[in-house]
Amino acid sequence: MRTFKFLLSVTLIALFFTSCQTDETQTTLVDFENVKLNSDSIWNGSDKSGISEKVENPYFALWGGDSLITNYNGSFTAEVASFKNTYTAEWNSWTGFACSAKADTATAGFLNQYSVMAGAGALNSKQFGLVYDSASFVCPADANGKFSIKSIMLTNSTYAYLYMKSFKEGSWFKVIITGYLDKSKKSKVEYYLADFRNGKTILSKTWNKVDLSALGEVDLVSFTFASSDLMAPSYVCIDNIEFTQTISIK
User: Fold this and answer.
1) How many CA atoms lie within 13 A of 49 on its CB side?
2) CB under 8 Å to 26, separation ≥6 — which residues?
3) What one-character DSSP code corresponds to residue 167?
4) Distance (Å, rounded) from C-alpha 129 to C-alpha 131?
């Protein structure tokens, strides 16, 4: 009888503490405001903070130059995410992610590649992220567990917007955002930054919130592009990436 009463007491105590544990949803917003920019109001990897790598490039050899180029594979961090970047020293060029505070909405062409057509970051903030070509960022689990991605704000860069103003009926340009967890592809969301099909005249120049909740829990998110025009500049400006975590509170 005493043994039974003891086991019953232990069970009741365990149930009491379990019932006192609640789950709370915590939201984290990545807004790029804490990224340190250079004197030209950008970060594009040109500080060569990444890991250097010599890469064979046959195009240089065709012009009588050295066939090796130097890539610096690095990243910058904003809140809980790390944004990958590759800077090529010989070309003074980059792929992946950059961060910018440039807002020239009038100048066309590649030399104005870092500006946002909206004239400022999302919600009139100063800084924003910029994707070129293809890119990925990582958001590994921390002490509170894994992150779920909920939304992101997107718009066109000035360079891409002014180029796509010449689009004809039937033309389109989209960014494809894909989520991964433990190296496994989960889901993707497609967003049209320009769409001139079926009588539409969509050409984004304001920040728009895009629902990414279909991706669920992620530790890596990639960006790729597709277009009816193979020459369209493959850029998108990003800001205010929203993540959530479920945290147990005792």
Assistant:
1) 12
2) 144, 244, 245, 246, 247
3) P
4) 7
Q: Which residues contact 214 (CB under 8 A, 6 or more apart)?
A: 187, 189
Q: Which CATH class is domain 24-249?
A: mainly beta
The 10s digit of each residue's pLDDT in 173-222 is 999 999 999 999 999 999 999 999 999 999 999 999 999 999 999 999 99
Q: At 4, which helix (H) or strand (E)?
A: helix 2-19
Kindly give, in sequence order, each residue whose CB lies less than 8 Å from that of residue 7, ignoring residues fewer than 6 positions away: none
**DSSP three-state, residue 157:** strand
Dump strand ranges (E) for 89-183: 93-100, 128-132, 135-138, 147-155, 172-181
Helices (H) and strands (E) in the chain, counts: 3, 16
Decide: 95 and 136 in contact? Cβ < 8 Å. Answer: no
Q: Which two tokens stand for residue 4?
A: 């039974």
- Point out which residues pair with 30 in neighbouring strands: 241
Beta bridge partners of 122: none
Residue 167 φ then ψ, to 5°: -60, 145
Query: Tokens representing 126?
Result: 């100063």
pTM for this predicted structure: 0.88
**Could you state, in order of their start, the residue ranges of all structural domains in the chain?**
24-249
Q: pLDDT digit string (tens) for 73-103? A: 999 999 999 999 999 998 899 999 999 999 9
Q: Which residues contact 79 (CB under 8 A, 6 or more apart)?
A: 28, 29, 30, 31, 34
- What is the C-alpha separation between 73 and 83, in angstroms, rounded? 11
